[in-house]
Design goal:
single chain, alpha/beta, Rossmann fold, 2 domains, six-stranded mixed beta sheet, four-stranded parallel beta sheet, about 35% helix
Length: about 350
């Protein structure tokens, strides 16, 4: 049995970083670990049938396992995550998963889940009512919490222990840490006041929705988010006047905002006086930003650093190599030059200053 316990942020979590792993003679379970509820999970063997109540569960497990054979179901909302994104090319079998285990949200369809005969179910822990119906019928649930960067590191750890592939977790986390360290070195001399101001806008209607307090560390990219405040709220809805008051140097659009493009800003007369619009510095995040929980999300910081501070970086080829290396490690697949163009949203970003030079 492997027993892992670590006090982190005032609670017990499964974590690899502590290395508090003790081997003892096998009794009943082959591996035990704590999920994000602090509940002890005991597995006699790696589960062969996994149901995930959210889209990121299959992505993280694929990264650790190198295949999707264990995943038998996911919620309906996952279809929007996979369809039309690079995941549809990279892991097309995800579009064939049973998506009847929940509706658009995370409330479980217990009957449909039981029909799949899962060994474990992955479910969010933010509402106990999402887990109680599953455990009430005898299903084993591994709880995942949201939505800090530390949680996302722990998703890889939880998947590593669940599948018995903890060495894969270690390799991916080392890649992420190395990328972060390289960026910190690039911006070591940059003062906070000299970082590039930005806004992250994911919706334009009568008002504008901006991401205020996400888990992304913008300092890694030499940037600062003008919408950040002390509320802790992920989004803020503001009017055009507030955008003009902030007047960001650049605007970035999350990859999941599939209908929103830089051209929507350039053609919007209300926004014409924004520096980011006047200077054509509105950029669509690449496809590796599609899920904030996926193992390749670290690439977003590297990309943003180059967009915001191009003078500190050299050739596009180096970032292409970074992409190839990242996808090879995480998904164990070689991506083509054509796929790189698709991932980088070169068509959408072609009119934005410097983009083709940076990434073309």
């Amino acid at each position: 049995m492997i027993d892992l316990k670590l006090r982190a942020f005032g609670r017990w979590t499964a974590a690899i970083a502590a290395a508090l792993v003790v081997a003892v003679p096998a009794a009943r379970a082959e591996v035990t670990f704590l999920d994000h509820r602090g509940k002890l999970i005991e597995l006699e063997a790696p589960p062969q049938r996994i149901v995930s109540m959210f889209a990121s569960g299959p992505l993280v497990h694929y990264a650790i396992d190198g295949h999707s054979d264990r995943i038998v179901g996911v919620n309906k909302k996952a279809k929007a995550m996979y369809e039309g994104s690079f995941y549809a090319q990279l892991i097309p079998e995800f579009l064939k998963l049973n998506m009847n285990v929940a509706g658009e949200g995370f409330a479980p369809n217990v009957e449909a889940i039981l029909e799949l005969k899962p060994d474990v179910v992955l479910q969010w822990v933010f509402d106990p009512k999402l887990i109680e119906p599953l455990e009430g019928v005898g299903l084993k649930v591994i709880g995942w919490d949201c939505c800090t960067n530390q949680h996302r590191r722990e998703y890889l750890q939880l998947a590593g222990y669940t599948t018995g592939r903890i060495e894969r977790t270690q390799a991916i986390l080392q890649k992420q840490d190395a990328s972060d360290a390289a960026l910190r070195k690039v911006f070591a001399d940059l003062k906070a006041d000299d970082t590039v101001s930005l806004l992250v806008v994911d919706e334009i209607k009568d008002s504008f929705r901006v991401i205020a307090n996400s888990s992304q560390d913008y300092s890694l990219s030499g940037t600062r988010n003008l919408a950040a405040d002390d509320t802790g709220e992920w989004w803020r809805t503001v009017d055009a006047e507030q955008l003009l008051v902030w007047n960001p140097a650049i605007i970035v659009i999350p990859a999941y905002a599939s209908e929103l493009k830089p051209a929507d800003f350039y053609g919007n007369a209300v926004l014409a006086n924004l520096d980011a619009v006047k200077n054509k510095r509105v950029y669509k995040f690449p496809h590796f930003n599609r899920s904030p929980d996926a193992a390749e999300i670290y690439l977003s910081d590297d990309w943003l650093a180059r967009v915001a501070n191009p003078a500190r970086f050299s050739s596009a080829g180096k970032f292409h190599d970074t992409l190839k290396d990242g996808y090879k490690l995480i998904y164990q697949k070689d991506i083509t030059d054509e796929q790189i163009r698709f991932i980088l949203e070169l068509e959408q970003n072609k009119d934005s200053v410097g983009y083709v030079d940076l990434f073309g």
